[in-house]
Design goal:
Two copies of one chain form a homodimer.
Chain A lengths: L2 E10 L9 E17 L3 E6 L13 H11 L6 E7 L10 H16 L6 H16 L7 H6 L2 E7 L2 E6 L5 E7 L5 H6 L4 E3 H19 L3 H7 L6 H4 L6 H10 L4 E4 L6 E5 L2 H16 L5 E7 L6 E2 L1
Parallel strand pairs in A: 3-4
Antiparallel strand pairs in A: 1-2, 1-12, 2-4, 2-5, 5-6, 7-10, 7-11, 9-10
Helix pairs in contact in A: 1-2, 1-3, 2-3, 6-7, 9-10
C-alpha cells in the first residue's frame, strides 16, 4: 500500500471540570487527508482547501508531525500529503490536532501499523508544537483514541480511555478570535485550595458518571469553578448561551479547548438539536457571525475514508 | 425489635490525591454498639471500654447523632447505648465516625430501616461536629456505604459508591497526637494551578483505575502533590514508612485522614502482610510506640453483630 485516505475528527478538550486532562472525539466535522509514500526525501504538501496553510512542511502542523516520524524511519524517505481541511483553524475544536493526528494515523497504516496509539500521540504532538508552541496532547489523545480520554500524565505520557454512555455534542463557534496566549494569561497562577477540591470532586464525579452511564451524575458534575470564570470573559454571551443550552435539556457544557467555541452535552440527538436551536437563538440576536455543529461521540477516532 | 447490636468499622479518609472526597471502609478494627429503645426521654450511655468518653449524650459523638435523630422522631422517646470502642480515638482512621455511623445505622434498624443511607450520613455528621467542630462526611460516608465512596458535594450532600477490585489495607498508627487544628492550619490557602491539575489528573486516574480494576493504573495514580508535602511533616518518618511499604509491593498509600496513621494499599493479603512487616521495621527503630492493622476493604459498612 503506497497511498491512503483518512478522515480526521474535531475534538473537545478541557471538558468542563476536566481542564487539561479530559477530552472527547467528535464524529463531525472531519478533515480529509490523502497520504502517499514518496521516493523523494521529506514531506511535500498540496492544500486543496481555502485556508492557505503553509506548504513548507516544517511550518505546517501535519508536516512537522510527519517529519518527526520520518526521523524515526530508515525504510522510507518521504511523504506526499493532499490536505483538505474542513475544521476551521482557531475554532477551539482541535483543528491543528486533527491535522497532526490524521496524517500520523495515515502514515502508521502505510507502515503496517507498527506504532502503538501512545507512540502516535507522541509524534502528533510535534504538530501541536508548531500550532501553539506547546507539545500538548489535549486534542491529539481523543482524536487518536476516539471516545473520551483522560491524560493522567504528560511526562511520561499516560492516556486512558474512559467508557461512557451515548452522548451528543452541540457546538456553537462564534467567529471571533481568542488568542491562545490570552486564554493562558487570563488564568491565575494560584487558586484557592477550596476551589481545587470542588474541582477534583467534580472530576471524580464526571469520570464516575461516564463509567456508570449515569446521566444525572454527569450533569451534576459538569461544573468548572476554576477556569470558566476567567476564560468565559473572552467569549461574548457565554453564560447566556450556556444557560439556553441547559434550559433546552443539555446535561451541561462549557468552553471547548481554550475557546471561542462553546459546547453542550446531551443524552439524545433530539435534545442536542433543540439545544442547537436555543444556542443559535442567543447568537442570532448578537450580530456576531457563528456556526454550529451537532455530533455524536466518535468512538473510533481517525478513520480510513 | 427493641435492642440491636452492630459492629462499626474504621475508615480511611483523604485517599491520597482524593483529599476531602475519597474514602474507604475497613473490615477491622470494629467498634461494638448495643442500642435499645427506651421509655425515658433522651439518650443514656454506658461505656464498657477504657476510653472514658463522655456519658453526657450531647457531648458524646454517638449521643449527639442519636439526639439529632430523636428530634426527627415522634414515635420513640429515647435510646440506651452500650458502647464498646475498639478503634482508638485520635488515630486518624475514623474512630468518631465509627461511633456516629454505628449507632445511627443501629437506630435505623430499630426504626424499621425508614431512612436512606444519605439521611443516615446526615444524622451521623452531627456526631462528627461534636468530635471535631466540623460537620464532615469524610469517614461517615464510607462507614455507612461500605467500600470506596466519593463525596462529590457536601451541600447538597452527594455520595457515590465506586466499584473497585479486591484491595487490602495496611495501617501503621504511631502513638503520637496530631491535632486536627494543626493538620488544617499547616495547609496553604492557595495552591499552584499546575499542582491542582496534577492532582485532579491523578484523582481521575485513581477513580478510573478502581472502576476498571486496573491495579497498575491505581498505583500510578496514588500520588498527592497538594496535601502530603505539608501534613507529612507532622508524622515522624512518614516517607521512610511509605517507601518501605512501596518497596514491599504496595500499590501506594499516604496519610489516613489527617493522620497520624499511615496506610498502604495492596492487591493481595500476602503483600499487605509483607508491607506491614516492612512498615513495622521502620518504626521499631524509632522508639515511638505504634500499632498496625491489616484489613481487606469492607464492602458492607456498619453491620449487624
Amino acid at each position: 500500500m503506497n497511498s491512503i485516505k483518512v478522515k480526521s475528527p474535531a475534538t473537545v478538550a478541557n471538558l468542563v471540570c476536566g481542564f487539561d486532562i479530559l477530552g472527547l472525539c467528535l464524529d463531525s466535522p472531519l478533515d480529509e487527508f490523502t497520504l502517499s509514500i514518496t521516493d523523494t526525501v521529506g514531506v511535500t504538501i498540496e492544500n486543496i482547501d481555502n485556508y492557505n496553510l503553509p506548504t513548507d512542511a516544517s511550518k505546517n502542523v501535519s508536516g512537522a508531525a510527519l517529519l518527526k516520524m520520518l526521523e524515526n524511519e530508515n525504510d522510507i524517505k518521504g511523504f506526499h500529503l493532499i490536505s483538505n481541511k474542513i475544521i476551521k483553524p482557531g475554532s477551539g475544536i482541535g483543528s491543528s490536532a486533527a491535522s497532526a493526528a490524521g496524517v500520523i494515523v495515515a502514515a502508521n497504516h502505510l507502515l503496517g501499523n507498527k506504532y502503538s496509539k501512545l507512540q502516535l500521540v507522541d509524534f502528533a504532538m510535534y504538530g501541536e508544537e508548531v500550532a501553539s508552541g506547546a507539545k500538548h496532547a489535549d486534542n491529539i489523545a481523543p482524536a487518536i483514541y476516539g471516545g473520551i480520554t483522560l491524560i493522567r500524565s504528560n511526562s511520561p505520557l499516560d492516556i486512558i480511555s474512559i467508557d461512557h454512555p451515548e452522548l451528543f455534542v452541540t457546538i456553537l463557534h462564534p467567529q471571533i478570535e481568542v488568542k491562545t496566549a490570552d486564554a493562558r494569561n487570563i488564568l491565575p497562577k494560584e487558586i484557592p485550595l477550596k476551589n481545587a477540591v470542588t474541582q477534583w470532586a467534580n472530576v471524580a464525579g464526571l469520570v464516575t458518571g461516564f463509567m456508570q452511564h449515569d446521566y444525572n451524575l454527569i450533569s451534576r458534575s459538569l461544573e468548572d469553578v476554576v477556569v470558566e470564570p476567567y476564560r468565559s470573559r473572552l467569549i461574548p454571551h457565554f453564560y447566556e448561551v450556556k444557560n439556553a443550552g441547559k434550559n433546552a435539556g443539555a446535561l451541561g457544557g462549557g468552553i471547548s479547548g481554550s475557546g471561542p467555541s462553546i459546547f453542550m452535552l446531551s443524552s439524545t440527538a433530539e435534545i442536542a438539536t433543540s439545544v442547537e436551536l436555543e444556542m443559535k437563538d442567543v447568537y442570532l440576536r448578537t450580530g456576531i457571525e457563528f456556526h454550529t455543529h451537532v455530533s455524536k461521540i466518535n468512538k473510533e477516532g481517525v478513520k480510513l475514508a
